[in-house]
């Protein structure tokens, strides 16, 4: 066997051995490793407190402001007619010209 073939065989065995060790570690501690990776990736994903000036809208329980709209060609000025048993979601689209 040539020196080059022997060297290649040695490298292949080392690679196979390292792959086996890594696979064994993942098999035994895969859940812990996955949990640690997830923790590392998401550790600074969320902020503890909203400190910017953006105001997303009305606070929960606040009175809905007056509006003027049409529903099935009927004028709507009071949203209480539209609220169902489970509440209502109101989505406003600004500056739409049909």
Entry summary:
The protein is mainly alpha-helical and 98 residues long. The protein has one helix and two strands; from the N terminus they run H-E-E.
3D structure, described in words:
This protein has 98 residues and is mainly alpha-helical. Helices cover 41% and strands 6% of the residues. The protein has 1 helix and 2 strands; from the N terminus they run H-E-E. The protein has one helix at 3-42, and strands at 69-71, 74-76. The chain has a two-stranded antiparallel ribbon. Strand 1 and strand 2 (74-76) form a beta hairpin. The termini are far apart. 0% of the residues are buried. The model has no long low-confidence stretch (mean pLDDT 81).
The residue-averaged pLDDT reads 81
Number of helices: 1
From the helix content, strand content and strand pairing, which structural class follows? mainly alpha
* Uncertain stretches of 5 or more adjacent residues: none
User: Quick one: biggest sheet?
Assistant: 2 strands, antiparallel
Shape, principal axes of CA atoms: rod-shaped
Question: Total strand count, please?
Answer: 2
- End-to-end separation: 82 Å
Q: Strand arrangement, largest sheet? A: 1-2
Helix content: 40-55%
β content, as a range?
A: 5-15%
Element pattern in H and E: HEE
State Rg.
Answer: 31 Å
């Amino acid at each position: 066997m040539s020196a080059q073939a022997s060297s290649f065989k040695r490298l292949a065995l080392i690679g196979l051995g390292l792959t086996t060790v890594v696979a064994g570690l993942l098999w035994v501690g895969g859940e812990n490793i996955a949990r640690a990776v997830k923790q590392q990736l998401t550790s600074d994903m969320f902020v503890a407190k909203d400190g910017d000036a953006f105001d997303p809208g009305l606070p929960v329980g606040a009175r809905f402001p007056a509006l003027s709209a049409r529903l099935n060609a009927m004028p709507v000025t009071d949203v209480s007619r539209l609220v169902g048993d489970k509440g209502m979601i109101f989505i406003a689209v600004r500056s739409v010209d049909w």
